[in-house]
UniProtKB/TrEMBL annotation:
<protein>
    <submittedName>
        <fullName>Xanthine dehydrogenase accessory factor</fullName>
    </submittedName>
</protein>
<dbReference type="Pfam" id="PF13478">
    <property type="entry name" value="XdhC_C"/>
</dbReference>
<dbReference type="InterPro" id="IPR052698">
    <property type="entry name" value="MoCofactor_Util/Proc"/>
</dbReference>
<dbReference type="Pfam" id="PF02625">
    <property type="entry name" value="XdhC_CoxI"/>
</dbReference>
<dbReference type="InterPro" id="IPR003777">
    <property type="entry name" value="XdhC_CoxI"/>
</dbReference>
<dbReference type="InterPro" id="IPR027051">
    <property type="entry name" value="XdhC_Rossmann_dom"/>
</dbReference>
<feature type="domain" description="XdhC Rossmann">
    <location>
        <begin position="171"/>
        <end position="313"/>
    </location>
</feature>
<feature type="domain" description="XdhC- CoxI">
    <location>
        <begin position="15"/>
        <end position="69"/>
    </location>
</feature>
Amino acid sequence: MQHLDLQVIEQALAWARDDETVWLCTVLSTFGSSPREPGSLLVARRDGRHVGSLSGGCVEEDFLERLREGDFDEPVSTLRYGDGGADGSGIALPCGGMLDVLIERLTPASSNLVHLEVLHATMLGRRALVRCIDLTSGRKHFVQDAGTGPRVSHDTERDSVQVRVGPAARLILAGLSPVAEACAEFARTLGFEVIACDPRDEVRASFDLPGIEVQSVLPSTFIASGACHAATAVVALTHDPRIDDLAMIEAVRTPAFYIGVMGSQRTSDARAERLQRSGDLSDDDIARIRMPIGLALGSKTPAEIALAVMADVVRVQRGRSRDAL
């Protein structure tokens, strides 16, 4: 899940608690070019206020216009864009693509509030669930996620869809530096929730990026507090072993999908030996740490190094091997 989708559910929950009816839209499938993957979310009110994205432009405009005109009063409906205008008002997507959207009309009933609250807690927590939506009645419920399969699947026999829901992607920056600052900007635009941890007052004073949470504690302390779930990446980019090493020792004890630390190959070899000796890390623990961090792009500047780091994070997140690049 992207952090943007978490913001969608937070806004949906806030509106529902204010007795507003909301329309929750989910991308079911895409064909061809599409900037948003299946499972992506948008929430809107009848007056056109909305949070989230379905395609990045024309689809949202058409949907919101039709919503203001009184469409989508059914509990649940589906809409296809880009297929010759079959039911998407003739909207054409780039490169001949198509987009299927699920639209749920959620009144501020207690059952819908509970459903949104469970969805919100799932995006913040450690346990993944599957949303099951009946396309005829609009009834919905959660089941345990087995951890495998596509993000969205369609059961044609039962005329229902299943949407896997898990924690929103999170990036923990273990310490601040020019590279970490550039990394934060990349990660934010990629849809990560970004949390920067650094106990040094003078370093935090020069760090000011909107939308980035800053914790004034040692990264290792924050990581050990339970801040990492399976959709978390932990990166240490300070060149300060007092910060980086402790963060790595704690990070390997978590389910984080990506753990990496900056440094040359020589520095990385020395760090591995040091972590095994003083941190009591096993060979398997060391193998989880990507050092040197990032893709070998020949990066020199902070922005180039940050690009290499986030490219590698996304590679692992998407399950791509380096050989496949």
